[in-house]
């Protein structure tokens, strides 16, 4: 490294993390935009981009070209390194698990799933999922910088306990984060230490992924609601940050009552969104028994897509849309979001009859009547996995120089 570049980089070292995040989220496609967004000189932005490239995180276009009709000097384009390091992301759900290798930019490099009944001891499925992830890493031959896990439960902070895994047989308060870190250590996953091996609620992580890379990009106050394989979850991003409450337990929207005389809920109440607007509720309302194979979410979405013209299926869709709209309206009154995104079965319900859902929300909410809040489908495949990857990438986004330390890491039980 030349003395001039060293001097420039020393002035811009604090900009490495913000610069990487700008490229990671697609907000700095060129070095000119990076210079403007960081508020630094062109020389400093160039040194920062060169250092990120030297770390193997981005690629700087060596031969910039002007776009049609543009004036002035062409700017170097910035790309994420498609052959760069990855993180290991895992998701546990009621019907099995999925793991993936995820690069910067939320790009899934490789993924594999396992289906079946989740055992009561979380250590078993975590070990199986981590072993599957280890196989992906071995086959891909990519450097791993960390790992994270999404689970269908509120995750109590700071210890990472699964407080209410209602649709799993796990005991309340299961120490999932500690068990996940132990599984990573026993599998010898590179990049996993006592401090790396994050765990979060699946819908929270879906919202984080959609805010950075999908349908929620650019929203200030983003509300996300998703059905999951079982149950209903919600998440809120405020001013670009995930709102998880004082101890990680905020936005349990699945336990909003939308039908006081409805089905008993696992929480002890009745008629909650969790049991009135999830895939099992849809199958039941349509008069269809769940099949023995395949996830409930897949069964419900396939039924909605393939047989929506069937009167019983259409009536079930209308019923769930009305229940979902009632819940959303109450949240709009309380939270006043500037955008709502829907995932899982709810994304399919929105697609099946978008005007009905929006009309219910507008009719039932104070702020909906005054102009309405955009309600959009989630756009990312496996967004909870991508969100888990965001947790694992965050230390690198905070300080990209930790990449240099990765080769010497040894896994620990945590």
Write the layout of secondary structure elements.
Blueprint: H1 3-12, H2 16-24, H3 31-38, H4 42-54, E1 58-60, E2 78-80, E3 86-93, E4 96-102, E5 108-115, H5 122-140, E6 144-151, E7 155-156, E8 161-162, H6 176-187, E9 198-201, H7 202-213, E10 221-226, E11 233-238, E12 241-243, H8 273-276, H9 279-285, H10 296-306, H11 311-335, E13 339-343, H12 345-352, H13 354-364, E14 375-377, H14 383-398
Parallel strand pairs: 3-6, 6-9, 10-13, 13-14
Antiparallel strand pairs: 1-2, 3-4, 4-5, 7-8, 10-11, 11-12
Overview of this protein structure:
With 414 residues, the chain is an alpha/beta fold. The protein has three domains: 3-63 and 75-80, Arc Repressor Mutant, subunit A, CATH 1.10.10; 86-203 and 383-405, Nucleotidyltransferase, domain 5, CATH 3.30.420.40; 217-377, 2-Layer Sandwich (Nucleotidyltransferase, domain 5), CATH 3.30.420.40. It has helices at residues 3-12, 16-24, 31-38, 42-54, 122-140, 176-187, 202-213, 273-276, 279-285, 296-306, 311-335, 345-352, 354-364, 383-398, and strands at 58-60, 78-80, 86-93, 96-102, 108-115, 144-151, 155-156, 161-162, 198-201, 221-226, 233-238, 241-243, 339-343, 375-377. The protein has a five-stranded mixed β-sheet, sandwiched between helices. The longest helix is centred in the C-terminal third of the chain and has 25 residues, at 311-335. The two termini are 37 Å apart. 51% of the residues are buried. The model is unreliable at 407-414 (pLDDT under 50). It holds the Pfam family ROK. This is ROK family protein. Belongs to the ROK (NagC/XylR) family.
